Amino acid sequence: MLVIKDNNTNDNHLVKGSLYKISLAKGTITSNPVTTRLYASAVLALALHQLVFRKGEWHMKAPLLFRIWLLSYPVILFAELVIGANSLSDSVYNMLVTVGCGTFVLFASIAVYRHFFHQLRGFPGPKIAGITKFWHAYKCLPGQNYLVLDELHKKYGDFVRTGKISHLFEFLLLKHE
């Protein structure tokens, strides 16, 4: 929403679709607090991915990470209420938008990295398998992982990217025995 303030009459004129507040008399543009929160959550999400989640076996800590993510909702809501949002509904809206933006940017950053920059990007296999393990888990729901892997090897050859690097080494070790 664009808010144009006429200092002569002290009237506010609203124009939808903008992220800035413009004061005509002074010629200044100030950022909307929600926009600032969105930028901050996006930068934090990118930093988390680049500095933390790219190293280590974070999938082993998924339950803990999920609990931390759930805990972020009431923590940010409390911070919104303390900072002084206009109402509880504004605070809830700001919290949902902030955490939602951060979550989306984090997952998008992980997907872009795995698809375009990961060291295994050159190995053949389903593109979605290079981005997430959910695809493999879904395919293996009937409990026949060996059939899924056999089908992938028939389609893509000896080396197939299914997500983790360990599958490539397991296949190489089995093939040489």
SSE topology:
Elements: E1 2-6, E2 11-15, E3 20-23, E4 28-31, H1 33-53, H2 62-83, H3 88-117, H4 127-131, H5 134-139, H6 145-156, H7 166-176
Parallel strand pairs: 1-3
Antiparallel strand pairs: 1-2, 3-4
Helix pairs in contact: 1-3, 2-3
Tell me what the structure shows:
The chain is of the alpha+beta class and 177 residues long. It has three domains: 2-31, no CATH class; 33-117, no CATH class; 127-176, no CATH class. 60% of the residues lie in helices and 10% in strands. It has a four-stranded mixed beta sheet. α1 packs parallel to α3 (88-117) and α2 (62-83) packs antiparallel against α3. The longest helix is centred in the middle third of the chain and has 30 residues, at 88-117. Residues 13-29 have low confidence and may be disordered.
